[in-house]
Design goal:
- It is a single chain.
- The protein is mainly α.
- The chain contains three helices and no strands.
- The chain has a domain at 2-45.
C-alpha cells in the first residue's frame, strides 16, 4: 500500500514523534490526498504510535504539613451587595 509506505517512512524520519495530525500534513505535502481519520486508522491497524517525549510533572504537594484554610462562607454564596464575597 502506497500510503502505508509513506506513513512508515515519515514515522521513521520523525523519530517516532509524529501522530495523526502531523502525519496527515506531511502526506499532503508529498502530494497524497488523505484524510486525518484514514491516516489514524492506518496507523492504529499497523500499531504505529507516536512516542511521548515529555513526562507529566506533578506540581501538587499533597504531603504538606500546613493546615486547611478556614471556610468563611460555609456554602452561603448569596451577597447583600456586589463585591462582598469573593
Amino acid at each position: 500500500m502506497k500510503v502505508l509506505a509513506h506513513i512508515r517512512e515519515q514515522y521513521s524520519l520523525s523519530l517516532g514523534s509524529y501522530g495523526r495530525p502531523r502525519m496527515t500534513m506531511e502526506l499532503k505535502e508529498v502530494g497524497l490526498d488523505v484524510g486525518e481519520h484514514w491516516v489514524g486508522r492506518l496507523m492504529k491497524i499497523n500499531e504505529i504510535k507516536p512516542v511521548r517525549t515529555r513526562k507529566h510533572k506533578v506540581t501538587t504537594d499533597s504531603q504538606h504539613r500546613l493546615g486547611v484554610a478556614a471556610n468563611w462562607l460555609d456554602g452561603d454564596f448569596a451577597a447583600d451587595a456586589p463585591n462582598r464575597k469573593w
